[in-house]
Amino acid sequence: MSNSPDYSATTQISSVDVEPIPRVYPSDIRPIEVQPTCSHLIVNRVSSGELSESDYSDAEEDLSLPVKQRCQQSEAGKLLHLLEGPGNILDDDDMPRNQTCSPGLEHGIEYLSAVSCKAVEQAEEFVRRVLERGWQVVHHHSLPDWLKDNDFLLRGHRPPTNSFLACFKSIFRIHTETGNIWTHLLGWIAFLGVAIYFMTRPSIEIQWQDKAVFSAFFIGAILCLGFSWVFHTVYCHSERIGKLFNKLDYCGIAFLTMGSFVPWLYYSFYCRQEPKIAYLVLIFILGTCAIVVSLWDKFSEPEFRVLRAGVFIALGLSGVIPALHYVITDGFYHAINSAALGWLVLMAVLYITGAIIYAARIPERLFPGKFDIWFQSHQIFHMFVLAAAFVHYHGISEIANYRLTLGDCLEVEVE
User: Does domain 145-414 have CATH number 1.20.1070?
Assistant: First the structure.
């Protein structure tokens, strides 16, 4: 037996095909700046078919082009075209471990990273333009002092716009003034239609004298409701515009009160010139005083809310004097059935109740933040004013019909 070593096992092992392990030198390693989270996510979504041509495209793509052409011109289409072809791989998870990264994939990842950054920049620019061109509701504490009228309305306020166009666009938005605008805007349209219908009746139905008397009420109602909804619309424009239209809003209340008295005094004291003229002059003086007080700059400030309500309640209660005069001279039964005193009293109750709710700021005072948008005290006050105006229109129509059926004053005296 020979003592020489046996190399048969070595020969058998070397005969097996073993793939040599490549030697990697440091000079062959090239760093690639990528963003794995963003790029891999988008590449995987593209490879799985989750992205369509509308999910990742240019911000200014031409929608008039065919879908296929738009897809090819979009960023996603360019990327897919770049990664197509032999040797380019969409998902590195599917890449064999022994295969090196192709130059097309490296370039595609870099391109995809740049595209993702561009998309983020375009999104930020879009949001910035929306915020600049539009407006958003804010909290009460974010408002300037001249917009802080009701401390119990916490959210949903409009910020200053300095634009009439933005103010009138806000009519169709939801905020704290939406209900205030629409309650009197719809009422203004309704009274405008009633007034046009009444004034265009032929003379055989309504004489020109009656049209002139009723026009005082119609003008007062249209001015009051018109000033009101316009004020609540442009209130957030600026401090100067807000104060101007706030004064017009208060003047409109005085005009409505004065105009409401004219038809009732005219028909109630139809054949008594002295008291009729005296009461008309009285209500004109009191209404003028209310307008002068309304033009005072501090009159619209929140601390004078009770004073404002008191001034207009006192103006309305001045009608108690001619009402008592009529009851004393003609009797309570005749005043109720012939002079529509019941409708006049109902109108006064509605006005006074609405003014008290407005001054007390109920219900938002009891539940702050719960009535920011709907059913706040100012909206309830608007509804009471609108109801009172229609009640008064019905009342003066009743008394006018009764008075005109009696004929002229000379005929009544002869009888």
Answer: yes
